[in-house]
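pinging the channel bc i need a second pair of eyes. not urgent but kinda urgent?? the chain im working w is below, pasted from the shared doc
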Amino acid sequence: MAIIQDKVAIVTGGSRGIGAAISRELAKNGVKVVLNYNSNSEAADKMVAEINELGVEAYAVQADVSKSEDAKKLIEAAVERFGQVDILVNNAGITRDSTFKKLSEEDWRQVIDVNLNSVYNTTSAALPFLTEAEAGRIINISSIIGQFGGFGQTNYAAAKAGLIGFTKSLALETAKTNLTVNAICPGYIGTEMVAAIPEKVLDGLKAKIPQKRLGKPEEIAKGVVFLCKDGDYITGQQLNINGGIYM
């Protein structure tokens, strides 16, 4: 078991939804959190204050991680503030759903840039620090949609499936170090993104889930903490937290 108290984690998209739950759960375990946000500084400041109330240091950094220079700035800010990076959680993501016939090039590129290219950007900048860490962790938040597809989600599915392939390949390359690389594939989780789905469609989705409910962001966050604390011999894997809808 790795001791994660006083370790330093960067969580992209760490102020809202699943990212906020991850930031919170890491902080509850004594991890110093650098939470990245793109535009919502109010949500980021609120999360920093919440973590500080737990007696843990937190720091918010504005960066559009789909841009390599911004991602580099994020990693540099974390190192400047805390002197190290032990955990990188690549969580930032967006949706631009549309059937492929109607999918614009802009919506294709935006989703690929934010959901997949950002992971290259942050990981390439952070990798030297993570491989030096006592028990480095990269955790990529993929999706069930990357495993079995989704109607009107070719862009999102491509990005999330790409994350799974990226995870496996980087895990092979870093297996001889103290760094592990894993993906978490959430099912349908009760976030703002899922709440935007029409009620009738959402009811249909719930009916297909063996546990008959949406997942909670906290359940994904606990998966992250598990991989950080107890994942010494787990690398290149997909942790499926989905209520049994995909096995």
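so The mean pLDDT is 96. and The first strand starts at residue 8 and ends at 11. — does that match what u expected or am i reading it wrong
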